[in-house]
Design brief:
It is a single chain. The chain is built from 18 helices and seven strands. The protein is mainly alpha-helical. 50% of the residues lie in helices and 7% in strands. A hairpin with a 6-residue loop joins strand 3 and strand 4. The protein is globular.
Amino acid sequence: MGSLTERCKRNGYPAASFFFSSTGSIGRRTKTAFVTTIAHQLAQHRQDVKEAIAAAIEADSIVFKKNLHVQMETIVLEPLRAVAEDNNRGLRGVIIVDGLDECEVERIHDTGTTRSKVKPTPARTNAQDQLEILQVLFQALLDPAFTFRILVASRPERVFREFFDPQNSVAPFSRKLDLHEDYNADADIALFLEAQFNLIRRRYNLPHTWPPHGAIQTLVKNASSQFIYAATVVRFLDMGHREPPNALLEAILKTRAAGRVASNPFEQLDVLYTHILESSPDPPLSIRWIRAIKAIHNAPLISDDLRVASHINLFLETDSQGSEAEHLLGNLHSLVRVPSPSEQTSIQYSFYHKSLLDFLNNRDRCGHLHQHQNIPVFLWDRFNRACLSTFILC
């Protein structure tokens, strides 16, 4: 979706976008910044729209604390109406919303008791916040001043199936494209692998016969129309591993599904994740680090400044003089975005795809790699170690 947004902008077609990510910052995981982000991006396309939105914000300075419906009406729809009335020339374009299924319910800090704790907002679920965003977009769609097409990309969870079900609407208002049923991704995956393998072959001065005959076809079959599988393979081959890409590819091609789960659509992806995680010198501890990083990212009371890689390393490493982070994550760069040493004081760890965390949280899928240790217990143990280490140094 990111490339589609950029293509729209290059072709002079106004576009605003919001990409939800359950592995990203809090602003990308919740609905809080959704409407304000759309309004900000729309303001960049025309000066009169920018001025109208700025005037709306000045007239209602607490609009950002109000619900999404009020925000949409105040800082998007009213400014667009004003612009259309002034010069009879509306702003046309597209609104792109990706990963809406990864929008999570907001969390609040409970100060109503003497013992402070964090808990989900009562009576709210992820699906309710996702539905609210869909309703806000539909509200905008019904306004004549809102001359935008809306593109929503998501997994087909129940809330989306029900919302877009034609039987639940008097008049159909959307078109559905099911990438699993209406689009065969195999040709695009094969083209992607061929292009990337050509780059790797030149970079590592491999023979022109590489990859071996049938390798790309096997990988396309293993991908089962999941682009993340092909992207993970390419990152794994080109991650600066100690072994050359041809040896790594041979190892991937030799892996076989164990058939742990009947009718598992992610079987080959699970095999690939298992193979990569087992390349770590200590897979169990590496997985605890991954899950701990995710837990820290999700903690609502920790500021973004404290989530940077250097602070997480300081918190999780048992030896402040060692390089435990590189030792554990060095072979996992195809799964985890690991900032370079010069960036670790300002950049956070992140994950390339939510499917890795889904895999690790599902005992049936990850098998012997499943972690029995409670991550809060692991974090508490590392916190005590960090405190003790600081006390001794002092």
